[in-house]
Specification:
The chain is mainly α and about 170 residues long. The protein contains five helices and no strands. Helix 4 packs antiparallel against helix 5. The longest helix has about 35 residues.
């Protein structure tokens, strides 16, 4: 695999995460209190997984309609930006649980979600190239389509696994 395919998205994600942190530091919000109770574990997991489904389906739709493909990296950049912003936002609170909350949210996202977002962008690029190359060949689309759908499913499972882990860790911290 070409090192540029990994290095460039990784640099973009790090810059996006850093930009989120910088934005929160540059524009602090004074009246912030961390909630002490979250919804039930089941409700949290369902909400997170719903977001993961929307992200994965959007990436799939954007890659199949090739002209919308640039929205996939923008979606990934937006999610990592919000992750950095949220981490700085929570840490800027005076709560004694802020560090634990950030760790409970960032560890699963860093281990599963960020790589899954990178994989989702690469899978979307591959799917778009496949569709563009074979759009007039229904037999090739029918034969190669399931492999691409399986890759999207794998990305979704990584995102869902992260969501479950994050919900359980946050419930444990709060």
């Amino acid at each position: 695999m070409d090192k540029k395919l990994i290095l460039i998205p990784l640099i973009i994600l790090i810059a996006s995460f850093s930009a989120g942190i910088f934005t929160e530091i540059a524009v602090p919000i004074e009246s912030f209190r961390l909630p002490v109770q979250l919804p039930s574990v089941g409700a949290s997991i369902l909400e997170y997984i719903k977001s993961d489904v929307i992200t994965t389906v959007a990436a799939l739709i954007f890659s199949v309609s090739v002209f919308l493909l640039p929205l996939v990296p923008l979606m990934v950049i937006g999610k990592t930006f919000s992750l950095g912003f949220s981490a700085a936002y929570i840490l800027s609170s005076s709560s004694e649980k802020a560090f634990g909350i950030v760790m409970a949210a960032l560890v699963p996202r860093g281990i599963f979600k960020i790589p899954a977002y990178m994989a989702l962008a690469m899978v979307s690029l591959e799917a778009a190239a496949f569709v563009k190359k074979n759009y007039q060949n229904p037999a090739a689309l029918k034969h190669g389509g399931p492999a691409h759908l399986l890759r999207f499913l794998f990305c979704f499972l990584a995102l869902a696994g992260s969501s479950v882990l994050e919900a359980l860790l946050l419930q444990g911290v709060l």
